[in-house]
Amino acid sequence: MSAIRFILVGILNTVVGLSIIYAAMYFFDFGIKSANLIGYLVGLIISFTLNKKWTFKNRDRIGSSLIRYLLVIGVAYVANLQTVIFFDSYLKISPYLAQFMGVFPYALIGYLGCKFFAFPEPADATPNSLVVVAPITSMKTRPKQLLNLSVVLPCYNEEEVLPETNSRLIELMLDMKKNGLISDNSGVYYVDDGSRDRTWELISKFNAENPCVHGIKLSRNRGHQNALLAGLFSAEGDAIVSIDADLQDDINVIKDMVCRYNDGYEIVYGVRSSRKTDTFFKRMTAQWYYRILKAVGVDLVYNHADYRLMSRRVIDCLGKFKEVNLFLRGIIPQLGFPSTVVFYERNERFAGESKYPLAKMLAFAADGVTSFSVVPLRMITWLGLFVSSASAAVVVWILLGKFVLHTAIPGWTSTVLPIYFLGGVQLLSTGILGEYLSKIYMETKQRPLYFIEEKI
Ligand code: UDP
Ligand code: MG
Fold it and tell me: How far is the CA of 275 from the centre of ligand 2 (A)?
């Protein structure tokens, strides 16, 4: 639909622009250059406004989207010029036809650029379709007995934050116990993911001070996702909340999660209401990541990390997945069950530094795609089909040029360029195949995800 609107805007823009140019020249005696300039400017304003408001229904600030729009139009214009030059002086077809051919790359680049870059869909914090907010009536209400809740925190070199995290958490648990939200045997489980600092020492100390605090020590560092799983599968309780140890997620929301659980929901996602505390870079990459995942068919809960409540039933289902590459954020929405979201503000890390450097983040992002979607594989097929049919068309064109139009066959470019291009396509495709192959390789070995060295 937006493509049709985009073309309509393009036609309108051309008509209005040309009329203005002619009017300026014939009625107001403008020179051809200034008439063109006015025509272009008016056309630009019309097309920007209409495309923004009508075609793509974009609500971003005008300034930033205008810059992006100008960039897109610039690129499209260069493509248009190059195509016209190619057809006109290279293949020597009539200038009108060449002009006409130039419209295609212009429209295509313009449209795609507007859709994905200049006026992207607003990525707001609305819960996505996979979060089934079940009507309360369809859910079984929980028996009136106090919930045995466990809170699981993976910790890797967190000695700086742990004392603060622990005292706040204990306070919260005490408060919830007092208010009759959770039972007295509810507890906290710290998973030490092979830390090299005093993390385990601290956990042991907390355990000695308070029997509600438990510790699980992994034999070595296995990464956040595996540490989390170790905690989920070791903790007791009718419901488990997983949360990072660094106090970035507001722990008070656990109360809301418990209330939702009592309403009958089996999964409660903690969703960040904004990304204000993130750097611009992290915010942009995160938004694009969700978009790309959505485009290849992986439906994640927008702005939700690993802060969530899951009931015992859900954990049991999770245990049935025997994959080595468990991408929890992708799998849990696929389990089904009545689910809902609670919103919270995410803070800066309380202390210490992020254990997710860029390289780890990229690997994690790639995992998200390749564990859930075969679209990249299918894209290779389409790419192959496209490239081969395009080259077939070019061959016809060249033969036509030689025998019918009698234009000289261009030599070097037409021979060497396809070699580089196809080389690139092939390397990319092999790379994607390799990604999946490595997944299969890891899965066939069925290696255990973690070993528990000690439990307290
Ligand atoms: N974490 C872990 N093992 C690792 C890396 C991180 O258990 O190999 C834990 C870490 O202690 C923290 C959580 O995972 O509780 C999230 O990590 P971090 O806060 O560093 O990530 P960010 O919030 O920066 O994405
Ligand atoms: Mg963090």
Answer: 13
